[in-house]
Amino acid sequence: MLLGLPEFDYHDAATVDEARALLARFGDKARLLAGGTDLLIVMKHRRAVPRHLINIKHIEGLSRITLTPDGGLRIGALATARDIDEAVGGQFQSISDAAGKLGTEQIRNLGTIGGNLANASPSAEFAPPLLTLDASLVCVGDSGERVIPVSEFFLAPGKSALQTGEFLTEIRVPVPADGARGLYLKHSLRKMDVAMVSAAIQTVIDGDICRDVRIALGAVAPTPFRAIRAEAVLRGQPLDHGTRERQLIHEAARIASEEASPIDDLRSYASTRRDIIIRLVRQGLEKLFADSRA
Ligand SMILES: Cc1cc2nc3c(=O)[nH]c(=O)nc-3n(C[C@H](O)[C@H](O)[C@H](O)COP(=O)(O)OP(=O)(O)OC[C@H]3O[C@@H](n4cnc5c(N)ncnc54)[C@H](O)[C@@H]3O)c2cc1C
């Protein structure tokens, strides 16, 4: 049954400082409103009943997407999936892939990267690419600004390293190594659904050597995570375009599925999720290795 929204007081923050002051004033009774694609549904179902909603959508500059002089990427927390899909590419392709696969067109028009990460869902679309790219998240709060490596941001389902009164303002992605390529793959029941399994992969291939590889998985553990043991299978290995390369890829994919701890839920059985991990990781690695030879 679709319920109406509970009563709340609405506040429009025009600046980061205003948002910070409102959060400090109302504490746990307040929630930030960005795109609202998640929060308003949660409120309609009374899974959250904040007394105060602080709209941050009108804060200038927080939806900006820029390249730094050294080639790193900065994404404002209010950039929508659509903004990111349209503006980001090249060595940051996996972020753009994730943006293009998030929900429906309507959700991509409204849903922000900050809201996506702050939710700390195990299936958060932007988490795996940012993990493979060593991104950091800038947040502000009562005691100023702090920068949290994305690898330390997700603590448990629905729980992030953000403290009461803190909010995300920017995502910083350092410049990737020369020759880095990445992609993001998602398996869901229907295209618009959240992921049953997602995988971001980033590789650096130098001639016939796999210099670096990063594999991050979503929706198959309490938090999105890097499959470190799977990466180690490939890192530094010569690639022969043939049987040995296929074996290495298969081994890495198998180990990635072992590193996961998926659960049975409405969307899938754990065993199915493990099979899908193997398929996605294999598919991603094969594509990136083939692209490096093109
Ligand atoms: C039909 C549908 C399909 C969806 N499909 C997907 C999908 O495929 N993949 C996926 O990952 N998600 C999906 N979602 C979930 C959601 O739409 C996205 O996660 C979206 O990016 C959330 O962003 P938002 O700006 O709308 O967040 P909001 O709803 O505005 O906020 C979400 C939460 O984050 C907090 N918040 C917002 N901005 C900040 C900030 N800057 N700092 C700190 N806290 C903040 C809010 O207080 C709230 O608690 C879907 C939702 C719907 C309704």
Query: Low-confidence parts lasting 5 or more residues at pLDDT below 50?
Result: none
Mean of residue pLDDT?
96
Q: Which oligomeric form is depicted?
A: single chain
The assigned CATH architecture of the largest domain is 2-Layer Sandwich
Order of helices and strands: EHEHEEEHHHHHEEEEEEEEEHHH
- Here the CATH topology of the largest domain equals Enolase-like, domain 1
Secondary structure: helix percent: 25-40%
Tally of individual domains = 3
Bound chemical compounds: flavin-adenine dinucleotide
Cα-based radius of gyration, to the nearest Å: 20 Å
Q: How widely separated are the two ends?
A: 52 Å
Largest sheet: 5 strands, antiparallel
Strand residue content: 15-25%
How many strand elements?
Answer: 14
Give the CATH H-level superfamily of the largest domain. Answer: CO dehydrogenase flavoprotein, C-terminal domain
How many DSSP helices?
10
Shape: globular
Query: Main sheet: which strands, in order across?
Result: 4-5-10-6-7
Name the CATH class of the largest domain. Answer: Alpha Beta
Structural class: alpha+beta
